[in-house]
Amino acid sequence: MDYAIEAEALSKRFGDKQAVAGVDLRVPTGAIYGFLGQNGAGKTTTLRMLLGILEPDGGTRRLLGSARPLSVAARVGYLPEERGLYPAMTAREAIAYVGALRGLKLGEARLRADELLAAHGLGDEANARIRTFSKGMAQKVQLLATFVNRPDLIVLDEPFSGLDPVNQQDLENMIRAERARGATILFSTHVMAHAERMCDGLVIIAHGRTRFSGSVDAARARLPSRVVLVTERPLTDSQSLLPPGNVAESMPGTGNRYRFPLPPGGIEPLLARLIETGSGIRDMHIERPTLHDAFVAIVGDVEIPAETQEAA
Amino acid sequence: MIRATFVIARRDVMATILSRGFLIWLAMPVIGLAFAVFASVVGGPRETASVSQAVAVIDPADEFAPWIQAVAAREQTRNAYERLRTAHTDTGAFARPAALLTDAELDALAKREDVAAITGLGAQSFTAVTAEADPNAQARRLLSGNSRFGAVLVVAPEAVMLFTGDKAPAAERIRTLVGLAWTKRAFAAEGLAARVEAVRAAQPDVSVTVLDEGVQPAGRKGASVLATGAATVLFALISLLAGALLSNMVEEKSNKIIEVLVAAVPVPAIYAGKLIAMLAVSLIGVTVWGLLFGGGFMVAAAQLPAGLLPTPPRGWPELLALGLAYFTCAYLIYGAIYLGIGSLCSTIREVQTLSMPVTILQMVILISTLGALANPGGLWHHFVSWFPLSAPYMMLGRAAADTGLAVHLASIAWQLAFAALVIAFAARLFRYGVLRSGPPPSLRQLAGLKPRTA
Q: CA-CA 20 to 30 A from A96: which of A194, A264, B41, B319?
């Protein structure tokens, strides 16, 4: 398999703080990958090391096959977490400038800027100065600038933050369109819904280390599915039929609700026994864990220092 | 990297030129000069007591006045000759030192057009006035009111009195001329004039042998003035223009666009681009100001007699070309240093704090350079000539005096190489000091001699 990004044991220390302690990351070519982690987990530092903005203290990285990220800068698009444009520039010039920095000829970059602005509802603002834009509009201009050189690899650091729902949807569509064009996309986010909807794969880091790498389904599979059972009458004596870890929830007027892990043998045998008790089953369904649940669980695993956990 | 450098340079040039402040910046020296002229006219003294070089001579015996008039005329010719001799070479028509010229030679020189043109400038004139009964009262009356005389000489048989008004010329000069005229008259009365003149003319010329490179003969003061002037003008331009680079990176850092730049192009390309952009903007300014002030200076100089202004040994075109080259070198060196220092600042306040030490550093360099120019030869002279921070000023000063072209070419190459080194060093410092947000690296790490460990 071809990888657009390969990183192994990346580490970075800022003074006394170990910002990144060993991140492994592989993003297959043509995939959309989410890069998840808590605040301060080391996501931005890792992305900066991948792009060559920072030099890692340890580990290796390859971007589009090159160990020198700047040598492939013309094939990369990057949206940093801290957005920034020259306020005196027009939207068209701002996008074209980034294109020129990424190796486009200025004339071609201007044409593409016009196309992008027109395609995303900013055609009338092409010659307006950035300082006259709202924060959201300026952010959108910078997003468009990220795509202007039609990059093979797009790295987006918290791209959805600061965008309204309509523009978030627009950005999702843009990312999918870029993937359809053949680009590889890696983005960091706190919003699990975006990752769940869009990502072919995830990398979750905590305390500067990779804790999970794989598909969304694999992440959710880290937690067992749970069964929700609602009965007319309390199970009382029959609650022992339920698997260990069951929890009763009192819900006046809607029956008696029980939650418990999905038994290894499935729910049919349990269902048969519950019918025999005559407790009046109103509802019984399986709830699969969300990515949010999986993320909290994966990140929560490392609340104790990683070294201690590994030693244990 | 070169392409990225010019993309950044182009943006910076356009951003500067199209900004509202650019025209004000361009016009500021002209506005400053206009304001200075206005202030001197409006705020200056209402009655300007300009010095009058006209001296009235009241000589009741009517005997001394011709002597002082002749002596004054010859001394003016001698001074004009000396000024022309300083500006020209020490050979040909100006071979003899002015002090050894005889009266006959001075009378012949006075007929030369170039000499006469200079003696006509502010020449001191002694006008014989018919004596009245009370010469002292007559002198007071001549100096009262809106008199054309700046002083009055009253000649007595054994004494001379000088009366001066508010427009008096230098009394010491008049005293010297009176002394010379008195002596000459005395020699003539004793029949010694011809012999004294012969003895005077027979004095040996003191030949000058230059032992140290760069040392100019005593007569070549014009070149020295030119050297000091050239170095000072270059210093003033660099001080005014390169200082702006201290705050040049703050815009990118405060706009947060620095990360977009650093992710797309090498940091040295960012530095070089910004430096080239500001150099281009500065050259636009220097060209405009040069045309304005230089044009004005040339118009004024054209009114002066030929030969009065010192001519650089290498000629004006070559000196101006070297001036442009050294301006570029100095701008790149100081600009790269300022850009590097300024890029470590996050706010304008930090930049302002750094401005004073930078200004002091510049002053130290200027003083060292002027000192070395005034005392040519020796180790210090060579050190200042090749020390990168002083080399542009010093070498331009030497160009105004006289130095071989090969030395200049070597110096320019060295200075450009040093500017490139500063850019590389500053970029490395920026990557460590700003982007890594970690502890500062050691000098060995900055020089790339020692890898940084985790």
A: A194
For B305-327, the pLDDT digits (tens) are: 655 566 677 777 888 888 899 99
The separation between the first and the last C-alpha atoms of chain A, rounded to the nearest angstrom, is: 35
Mean pLDDT of B256-268: 86
Q: What gap in Å lies between CA A242 and CA A247, rounded to an integer?
A: 9
> Which residue is associated with the tokens 């730049």?
B261
Residue B21 at interface with chain A, using a CB cutoff of 8 Å: no
pTM of the model: 0.70
Candidates A101, A108, A131, A143: best to mutate against B (most CBs of B within 10 A) is A101
Cβ-contact A5, A42 below 8 angstroms = no
Test B19 with A88 for CB contact under 8 angstroms: yes
Work out the pLDDT band at B438, boundaries 50, 70, 90: very low
In degrees and rounded to multiples of 5, residue B327 shows phi and psi of -65, -45
Task: Check: CB of residue A257 under 8 Å from CB of residue A229.
Answer: yes
Placement of tokens 């009192």 in the chain: A250
Residue B111 scores a pLDDT above 90: no
Identify which of B356, B324, B358 has the alpha carbon closest to the alpha carbon of residue B340.
Answer: B358
CB proximity A17 to B under 8 Å: no
Give the confidence band of A81 by pLDDT, cuts at 50, 70, 90.
confident
Question: Is the distance from CB of A112 to CB of A119 less than 8 angstroms?
Answer: no
Contact B357, B288 (CB under 8 A): no
The burial class, CB within 10 Å (0-12 / 13-18 / 19+), for A60 is exposed
User: Smallest Cα–Cα separation from B331: which of B267, B243, B248?
Assistant: B243
CA–CA distance, A195 with A188 (Å, rounded to integer): 9
Interchain CB contact of A83 with B (< 8 Å): yes
pLDDT, mean over chain B: 78
Whole-angstrom distance, CA of residue A35 vs CA of residue A156: 10
Residue B216's nearest CA partner among B365, B397, B411 is B397
Model ipTM over 0.85: no
pLDDT band at A144 (very low <50, low <70, confident <90, very high): very high
Question: Checking DSSP bridges between strand A226-231 and strand A256-261, what pairing results, if any?
Answer: antiparallel
